[in-house]
Amino acid sequence: MKSRTRRGRNLENFRREIYLCSRCGYCRGMVRARDTTDLVCPIRENTGGFDSFTARGRNIIARGILEGKLDPKSVSPEFVDILFACTLCGSCQEHCLSLDPNTWDVFPDNKFTDHKVDVLGIAESLRGIIIEKGNPPPAIRQVLQNIQLHGNAEGRPRNKREEFLKELDFRVKKAGEGKCDTLLYAGSVASYNQRDQKIVQAIARVLHVSNVHFCVLGNEEEDSGSDALRLGEEGLFEELAQRNLALFKKYGVKNIVCVSPHDYDSFVNDYPAYLEDEWSKLKVKLQHYTESLAELVHSGKLKIRKRLGKTVVFQDPCYLGRINGVFDAPREVIKATGAEMVEMRCSRRNSYCCGGGGGGVWYEALHKPRLQTQRAKQACETGADILAVACPICAQMLEEGLTSLEKCEMKVLDVAEILLETMN
Amino acid sequence: MSKNLSSKLREIVGSKYVSDDEYVRWSYSMDSNIFDVLDPTPPLVVVRPGNVEEISKILQLANSTKTPIYVRGGGTDGGGSRGTKITDSILIDITRMNNVVQIDEVSQTVTVEAGATWGKLNKEVEEKGWRLGYKGPYSGYGSTVGGSVAVQSNGYGSTRYGVVAEDLTNLKVVLPDGEILETGSAVNPSAKKFYRYCIGPDLAGIFVGSGGCFGLIAEVTLRLYPEAVGNAFGAYGFRDYESTQECYYLWLKTREADHVAWFAEDGLKVNSPELCDEGYVSMLTFAVEDQTQELVDARAKLLHQIAKEQGGESLDADKYAKGDWDYKFELLPRWAAKIGQWQWNCHMIPAGDALMDLKAVLNFLNQHKEEFKKHNVTHSTVSIAHKNAGHVSTSMYYDQGNPETVKLVKRLCDKYAELSIGKNGGCNYWLGKIWYPYTIMRNAVYRKLLLSVKKAVDPNNIMNPGGLTLPPDFDKEA
Q1: What integer pLDDT is reported at residue B62 of this predicted model?
Q2: By the number of CB atoms within 10 A of the CB, which of A335, A365, B76, B419 ranks highest?
Q3: Strands (E), B399-460
Q4: Does any domain span residue B86?
Q5: How far off is chain B from A407, nearest CA to CA, in Å?
Q6: pLDDT at position A2, please?
Q7: In a domain, B337, yes or no
Q8: What are phi and psi of B134, to 5 degrees?
Q9: B277 and B179 in one domain?
Q10: Which residues of A touch B395 (CB under 8 A)?
Q11: What is the pLDDT of residue B331?
Q12: Number of CB pairs, chain A paired with chain B, less than 8 A apart
């Protein structure tokens, strides 16, 4: 079974892979002359950097637990912090050379899923132990409670979920008001966060102007469960997945356009693994919104009315690019605006996490890794005018990162926001 | 005790870089060898110093409290060089010190902090228009320069440039009492770091291959070579071992190849089974790189000519030789994922004795073939040459998750060492418990002098006690 497509966050399920680790340490850091790889684990680089922060160290710890040499009941607060400091960006898995032998012919251009050790799954299983024992960091406990009680990590009221629609100067159809073939799935982050609401509004406007018929679930929308699973609360994820399945069935959804790469990843990878046939029977087409916009650009349905005379650098979201292989669609949309594109040294498969994944947007580890500042600095060094994002969490984190830099005029805009500027 | 120690260490390096947490310590319980698979040992406390001064203070603290020190670089030690007091030790994770200190074009040397990986060092010198002779061991993206010097590794470039120490010009070492020693030309405070054998006795030799028993290697200076502008590769199949040996011997004699590998039958079965089907018993490959294409062509021409004269049949060099060179440091983890964790049995042997050793090794493997089969252990014998020495290495690939298999491989590795080192006259270049019973423990004079040096340099026996077969407690030495 390929990584990222399995059910059951239990260390025992990963036993084979844990023992597959040869402890080469390439997941800790790798500087490679033949490409731009010059670090692997941003968390290791920006904390105390102990091996326990890295995939190799976690594997050794997982072995200790499986062999009964470490007692999972006595996990220390220090290790809990280390476990939740990881942003699950997947860079360690990307650079792990434990490759599926059937894919050796394409080396070194293997896909993320060709790397055999499911590092993220192992980390999520270890987090699951912490959750089960009831001692996660308070901020994480709160996030999980909020998702359980209110359907979103911030704990905002369910009946405010669709408020972002009010700012729009056209009416968006809600599921149930007729046919809902194409669902714009806003997700919990973009629905509530003020900065991110502008992103989902921009996407809706672009779709509307391009005459795409779409609907939203509004206050009925459920959290995808992605964050619950990443944080180690598998049961909550399963519950949410069932609720979403029921909703999508109820409204006969055929296409889902996701705002968040994290929701997109969960629908693409976690839902088929956990819901199996029930999910595959839906035959739903899944897209991240940048893929939808790229299609509209290619088909000519989306008209660019003025050229964007600016330089743009793009932040690959970990769960869109590295983990799901969508690198080109957002770049194609940006290029279609006439913008000049530049790249950061760490981009595409080597992209550097904004710091918000894996719970990082809600939990600041004790060593304060501040990846958002590091990444904003890297973006600034390109001299671009705009730092383009395609993920609500990236938008939040990198805007915050930029505020810590003194001499940087760059601003953060979502791909849809950039596009909208050229359509007005 | 550990809390008090930890708090003093925090005063030295800052609290961020010290941990005595059980789980953090456990993540340092294993390096990449079978001894640690059998018996993982966490240290008492982990510390990550950022400079030589901090190291000095840590060693002073350890000396005053008689606390063992174990230094860890990439954690890729494949031979088992850990001593016997790890659980009481301060483990110094040296990888925070990973800067290339200076590329000195006047001296044609590079000085690098001990915790830099070979991947980083290669990249930085190449960006400045130079190259390394010895480029690092097979684990070079994870293993560190200081670790390689301490365990005396070989690898890419060894055929022409020898083991790591042969390009070494200077070391900066923190002695167990915290004093900082410079070796080679740097003994003269006015001199640059440019040569090893000058001024007086070569004290760097005490620390090369020492397993960290005499001091902590903090900085390493290596010789540089001009940027390689071209390369060439060759791969030849042989239908009998005698012709292979003759070609191998003559290739080594020329000293013109940067890399020579001999894949014996079992190595072919793992790496290129299609060649076995075609009736070959061996394959030899070479890689050549140099500062002009003319030099590359001339050297490669000589090697091609020798191979053909010895009956070698030309194979697809891009497929069998170039990939290993182009993607250096990237092959072993892939094999581990396919057929299991590797345990090496590396040793060097005179160039002309390689076939004798190889035949004995193959016979040994054949004698145990039922056990290998029963426990699904794969073996692959590949000889990587260095200078005038052949190097026969049978890797055993095994399932780490099966305790019975682990025990079997450990037992067979012991027997293998008895044969190749104890009987055939091979010598381990890097360090490890597998080999000591047949080398250091068989030479009382050598070991006595080692012990005398240890007692003189490290009277409190804090540096990796029990390493190199030296006693973990001086008063208990018989």
Answers
A1: 98
A2: B76
A3: none
A4: no
A5: 27
A6: 60
A7: yes
A8: -75, 120
A9: no
A10: none
A11: 86
A12: 154
Q: Determine contact: B141 vs chain A, CB below 8 A.
A: yes
**Torsion, CA B430, CA B432, CA B435, CA B441, rounded to 10:** 110
Chain A residue with the nearest C-alpha to that of B72: A51
Asked if B283 and B366 sit in the same domain, the reply is yes
**Which one of A18, A24, A71 would you mutate to disrupt binding with B, by most B Cβ within 10 Å of its Cβ?**
A24
Q: Do A97 and B119 touch (CB under 8 A)?
A: no
Please tell me the distance in Å from B76's CA to the nearest CA on chain A. Answer: 6
Are the beta carbons of B119 and A48 separated by less than 8 Å? no
Residue A48: HSE in the Cβ half-sphere, 13 Å Cα cutoff? 27
Q: pTM value? A: 0.96
Nearest to B81 by CA among B460, B467, B386: B467
Q: Which chain B residue shows the shortest CA-CA distance from A30?
A: B141
**What's domain A301-423's architecture?**
3-Layer(aba) Sandwich (3.40)
Confirm or reject contact between B330 and chain A (CB < 8 A): yes
Nearest residue on chain B to A17, judged by CA atoms?
A: B337
Question: Given pLDDT bands bounded at 50, 70 and 90, which one contains residue B478?
Answer: low
Confidence of residue A31 (pLDDT cuts 50, 70, 90): very high
SS3 state at A342: strand
Q: Which two tokens stand for residue B447?
A: 């070991």
B74 vs A25: CB contact, 8 Å cut-off? yes
Domain assignment present for residue B53? The answer is no
Domain hosting B278: range is 230-423
Q: Beta strand B230-238 with B168-174: parallel, antiparallel or unpaired?
A: unpaired
Q: Are both B301 and B154 inside the same structural domain?
A: no
B123 in contact with A, Cβ within 8 Å: yes
CATH number at residue B199: 3.30.465.10
Domain count within chain B: 2
Task: Give me the interface pTM, i.e. the ipTM.
Answer: 0.96
The answer to whether B120 faces chain A, any CB pair under 8 Å, is yes
User: Which residue among A33, A38, A117 places its CB closest to the CB of B126?
Assistant: A33
Per the domain annotation, does B342 fall within a domain?
Answer: yes
| Residues B258 and B171 occupy one common structural domain | no
Residues B249 and B214 grouped into a single domain: no
pLDDT of residue A3: 65
Angle between helices A194-209 and A289-299 (to 10 degrees): 30
CB contact (8 A) between residue A70 and residue B336: no
Q: At what angle do helices A55-66 and A119-133 cross, to 10 degrees?
A: 50
Interface of B with A in 4-33 (CB under 8 A): 16-19, 21-24, 26-32
Confidence of residue B344 (pLDDT cuts 50, 70, 90): confident
Average pLDDT over residues B414-429: 95
Q: What is the CATH number of the domain that holds B273?
A: 3.40.462.10
CATH 3.40.50 matches A141-294: yes
Every domain of chain A and the residues it spans: 11-136, 141-294, 301-423
Are B364 and A53 in contact by the 8 Å Cβ rule? The answer is no
Q: Do B332 and A22 touch (CB under 8 A)?
A: yes
Q: In what order do the strands lie in the sheet with A386-389?
A: A340-342, A311-314, A386-389, A411-414
Quote the DSSP letter at residue B379.
E
